């Protein structure tokens, strides 16, 4: 087997972590000696053992000595929720470490590699780099750009409408698309909607198909908190809801008294929402409407990805377009769509070219 084959095994292992790793990256590791795979490990959940340790603890000291470690992300070099992996690797006497990608986290980047090299371990980086880069797009983007990865997600008709009539909810996508949209949600750490979506849809913004230890927090951009009174989002819940209000209101105290409901008053703009998410450590933001909020993010050029569910329907008339409001200074351009078929619906995934 080639180095890329072993790294492919590590990539497959990393994906087993999924959303459970939360703000930690998905990482996989494979230990090889004399051409044989001795152990495979991955980061199971946030706060748990890192992939390298998960693999190493399956082997004896004799098996580890002189072995080669293939790991998708640079071994950590700092004390966090777990001790530094690079020290344990060096102490175990591994001969070589092949790294898919250096860690963009400022506490790690390059330091793990340098520690290993300073302790006589041969280090190679960049193995299967393009494939490895798909594992932690949100994590990587967050530390490289100091803001969350921002995705706009919506369902629309063939004529680009969100609703058949303004002010009324319209069912557009099919059940298979709904199931997929739930899977999409579980990969984001924050979900944002605007006031019209709150008042018309009264959504829960929860992930209902699986139980997450760290479900996405729920954000609502409002003129004031009055519109949020007696909505599903402000009922007692273990999932935090943040009401991002531009003005104070008499309802602020009532809502703030609810468990996990927070009223935050500021002159909110997409840029300020993004910066606030970054300060809270949320690496990804899913914007789920409505039309004016989506237009604001487009105008601010704070869109890294579009996820669109397209239904074979035409509303015509005065239905609400997908993006209505202030125009962007220049058009936002996206990659060729990745298309998935869900019955009579199409799912289109497009990443902004500047985000590549």
UniProtKB/TrEMBL annotation:
Its annotated pathway reads: Cofactor biosynthesis; riboflavin biosynthesis; 5-amino-6-(D-ribitylamino)uracil from GTP: step 2/4; Cofactor biosynthesis; riboflavin biosynthesis; 5-amino-6-(D-ribitylamino)uracil from GTP: step 3/4
Q: How is the cofactor bound?
A: Binds 1 zinc ion.
Residue limits of the CMP/dCMP-type deaminase domain? 1-115
Q: Which UniProt keywords apply?
A: Hydrolase, Metal-binding, Multifunctional enzyme, NADP, Oxidoreductase, Riboflavin biosynthesis, Zinc
Annotated PROSITE patterns: CYT_DCMP_DEAMINASES_1 (PS00903), CYT_DCMP_DEAMINASES_2 (PS51747)
Q: Which residues form the active site?
A: 52
Question: Where is Zn(2+) bound in this sequence?
Answer: 50, 76, 85
Known catalysed reaction(s)? 5-amino-6-(5-phospho-D-ribitylamino)uracil + NADP(+) = 5-amino-6-(5-phospho-D-ribosylamino)uracil + NADPH + H(+); 2,5-diamino-6-hydroxy-4-(5-phosphoribosylamino)-pyrimidine + H2O + H(+) = 5-amino-6-(5-phospho-D-ribosylamino)uracil + NH4(+)
Its Enzyme Commission number(s) read 3.5.4.26, 1.1.1.193
Residues in coiled coil: none
InterPro entries on file:
APOBEC/CMP_deaminase_Zn-bd, CMP_dCMP_dom, Cytidine_deaminase-like, DHFR-like_dom_sf, Eubact_RibD, RibDG_C, Riboflavin_Biosynth_HTPR
Q: Which residues bind substrate?
A: 185, 205, 208, 288
GO MF terms on file? 5-amino-6-(5-phosphoribosylamino)uracil reductase activity; diaminohydroxyphosphoribosylaminopyrimidine deaminase activity; zinc ion binding
Keyword hit for Zinc: yes
Name its co-factor(s).
Zn(2+)
| Positions contributing to NADP(+) binding | 155, 197, 201
An example Gene Ontology biological process: riboflavin biosynthetic process
> Pfam families this protein is in?
dCMP_cyt_deam_1, RibD_C
List the NCBIfam families hit by this protein, alphabetically.
Answer: eubact_ribD
Task: Write out the similarity annotation.
Answer: In the C-terminal section; belongs to the HTP reductase family. In the N-terminal section; belongs to the cytidine and deoxycytidylate deaminase family.
User: What does the UniProt function comment say about this protein?
Assistant: Converts 2,5-diamino-6-(ribosylamino)-4(3h)-pyrimidinone 5'-phosphate into 5-amino-6-(ribosylamino)-2,4(1h,3h)-pyrimidinedione 5'-phosphate.
Recorded protein name is Riboflavin biosynthesis protein RibD
Per the UniProt record, the source organism is Lactiplantibacillus fabifermentans T30PCM01
